[in-house]
Amino acid sequence: MKHGISMEIVDTHNQQPNRNRRECKYYWDEIYTLVSAGGFSEIETQYDPQWAFGGRTGVPLVYANVLEKDGTAQNYLKRLNGYGIKRLVGVHYMPGMFFSGASPESNGAVSLEGYFGALDFFGRGAVDYVADIGGDYITMSATPKIGEIEAAYGTDFEKGAEEVLKGTAAAVEKLAAYANGKGVKFCLKNEFYGLLRGDKIVDFVKSLNEKVYLDIDTAEYRIAGCCPACVIKENPELIGVVHYSDTAFEDDQECYRQMNPAYPSVKATKVYRDLGDGTVNFPKIEAALKEAGYNGHVIVTTRDSYDVCRSILRARYYINTKLPE
Amino acid sequence: MANIKLSHMNHWKTIPYKQIDNFRDYYYEDRSNLVYFQDWDRILRYHKALGYDGIELAPWDMHEMMALFGTPENFRDFAADHGLKISGMFHGVSGAHIAENFDAQLQAGKNAVDLIARFGGETMGTCPNNDYASVGHPLSHEEVRNVGKVLDAIGEYAVDHGVRLGIHNEFFCSINKDNHRYLLEVTDPRYTWYYLDTAQISIIGEDLLKFYDDYHDRMCGFHLKDTADPQLADSIRYSANVEIQEDGHRWFWEPGQGVLDFPGLWELMKKYQFKGWVSVEDDGTPDLLASMALDSYYVHQVLKPIYW
């Protein structure tokens, strides 16, 4: 099993010392060297439209920023190669910022037309980027957060959820068709706080009229109370990409319904842990993948790391000692 | 009663918790100092402990803040429990040089004023237009007047709601060295003030003290910060995406860490008896808490004896 690493180790959303550095190109150039030194030669990046706004073009998380700094995706890849990273294999596309219903400026209103329009626009950009850089897949956060939908629809949550799911199916089919046409595998990530949490994603994917794959993100399944190894065993043909993410979080207070569910308000905890610091049984998952004949990408993901260097090396140590070939 | 109230512009983005009650247990999960910077409760405590009277809010955090607090009033009360007031909120106007954008920009401005009023804020430092590079040409006098019309209209609404709108230059803004004095001349002093960012105005190429001396009667507040790059070349200021440099070069420093004459400014503020909010802005610091402490030391030890 060959393990790549996601650049989601860099928390681009929350406050922390030295946060300012992540907005500069030099910071990312250095991170590539650390990733490479940690023994990872394939990376995935988040594809976060937030960074298309505000002039922070040193953040290489949307295609426009890559083009501004390097001219072409291939030039960017050459830069990565120079740091010992051979491939950018895929992206995690996060369109959730376009769905926000709690702002007092918007008075709770949310435009589904606006959300799906922006999702499609930036999603095509993400597909183009992956195709141009020679990557293999795009995995998209399947739905907005349940907390955001509740904030937008209030007591009409069920109606809102139905509308969002219906729109999501249409939007995914459209975007997946575009991706498939470009030779890019289209996958869905089902965060524990989305409408398709746990194994709900499986029937959803099977119901679509375009070829769409599952993203087996282990912590997300685990927190949602679902066994990732079981999903692997039952749906080997649907696995598009695998993310090794760890957690020790037991969501017994319905934190998945919060607007910021990765930071449980009832009791602060680090929901996403470094590899080996949680309770996910990776040897069991790796065995299930081998049994299923899976030979695709396995991406280590330590979302919102407290310390990037520590997270990279902890992951490498865990892989070397617990997941030997 | 002091003439000056000290605030701090919020660049703690984004704070994911309202309050962490299980702090010790949480710390032991990863033994990281990061847990000290993740909740509003502690961030506000730092403000109070370091001698600030208030906090200036940033619109880009609003969605996450409201997810934690529900309403601006709840945040206002939470800050009050920490001994702090909301001095105001930053606002950005965009595309105001195009007359057809008037209604949309006025509405966005009114929304921001409403928000500030609910927070109990008094100031709205307002970037008057989008950046020079995105406009793509020097603004004509007519285009500057269009900007002025938007600002006056928002400013009139703001006055009615107990808020003062002040022009806040950015060194890369389309309102810049060659036209920002003209903008001040064509706007109505009853509705449009100036929110003097000491570093931005110096980078643009103005003499900080002379500018304040010339327009002291238009000032409604300050962003207090230092720079080591006064009078930056036009070719740099007018280039695209110039605010964040690839190599991490900092345009802004804590007061006293750059080259600006803050004691001289304070003498003028004393001369003209400025009364209102002064908000320190640590834009681009790697360590907000350390910067806040450095700022506070400088303000209280060097500037306060001159005028307060």
Distance between the termini of chain B: 9 Å
Characterize the main sheet of chain A. 8 strands, parallel, barrel
Helix content of chain B: 40-55%
Strand content of chain B: 5-15%
Structural class of chain A: alpha/beta
Overall pLDDT confidence of chain A: 94
Rg measurement of chain A, Å: 19 Å
Q: Give me the CATH superfamily of chain B.
A: Divalent-metal-dependent TIM barrel enzymes
**CA-based gyration radius of chain B:** 19 Å
Low-confidence stretches of chain B are none
Count of the separate structural domains of chain A: 1
The tally of structural domains of chain B comes to 1
Number of strands of chain A: 8
User: Which whole number gives the mean pLDDT of chain B?
Assistant: 97
CATH architecture of chain A: Alpha-Beta Barrel
Question: Count of helices of chain B?
Answer: 13
Structural write-up:
The complex is a heterodimer of chains A (325) and B (308). Chain A has 325 residues and is of the alpha/beta class. Chain A has one domain (3-322): Divalent-metal-dependent TIM barrel enzymes (TIM Barrel), CATH 3.20.20.150. Chain A has eleven helices and eight strands. Chain A has helices at residues 25-37, 63-70, 73-82, 112-133, 146-153, 157-181, 200-207, 218-223, 228-234, 282-291, 308-322; strands spanning 3-6, 42-47, 87-93, 137-141, 185-189, 213-217, 239-244, 298-300. Chain A is globular and about 50 Å long. The N and C termini of chain A lie close together (7 Å). Chain B is α/β, with parallel strands linked by helices. Chain B has one domain (4-303): TIM Barrel. Chain B is built from 13 helices and nine strands. In chain B, strands 3-2-1-9-8-7-6-5-4 form a nine-stranded parallel beta sheet.
